[in-house]
């Protein structure tokens, strides 16, 4: 068994998000912050429409963002 904990939840998508879209997670958190106060699915829709992001990746970023904003 590895001494490293396996990443679970939304953060488990982060390596593939960074690889596929060529931007850091900090970049995406900035995009979401700049979008202003919106509901979860509104933010998901923004990432999908404005950045051609897949639903799963967008949902993971928004879930992480909103969890950290609380």
Query: How many distinct folded domains?
Result: 1
Described by the principal axes of the CA atoms, the overall outline is globular
State the helicity in percent bands: 55-70%
Structural class: mainly alpha
Low confidence ranges: none
Question: How far is it from the N-terminal to the C-terminal residue, by CA?
Answer: 34 Å
Q: Whole-number average pLDDT? A: 93
What is the strand tally?
0
- Amount of beta strand: under 5%
Main beta sheet strand tally, sense and closure: none
Radius of gyration: 12 Å
Annotation field: number of helices:
4
Order of helices and strands: HHHH
Relevant terms:
70 residues, mainly alpha, globular, DUF4287, DUF4287 domain-containing protein
Structure in a nutshell:
With 70 residues, the chain is mostly helical. The chain has four helices and no strands.
Could you characterize the architecture of this molecule?
The structure is a single chain. The chain is mainly α and 70 residues long. The chain has one domain. Helices cover 64% and strands 0% of the residues. It is built from 4 helices and no strands. The longest helix is centred in the C-terminal third of the chain and has 15 residues.
């Amino acid at each position: 068994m590895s001494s490293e904990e396996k990443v679970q939840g939304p953060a488990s998508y982060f390596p593939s998000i960074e690889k596929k879209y060529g931007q850091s997670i900090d970049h995406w958190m900035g995009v979401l912050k700049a979008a202003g106060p919106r509901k979860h699915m509104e933010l998901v829709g923004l990432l999908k429409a404005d950045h051609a992001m897949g639903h799963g990746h967008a949902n993971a970023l928004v879930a992480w963002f909103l969890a950290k904003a609380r």
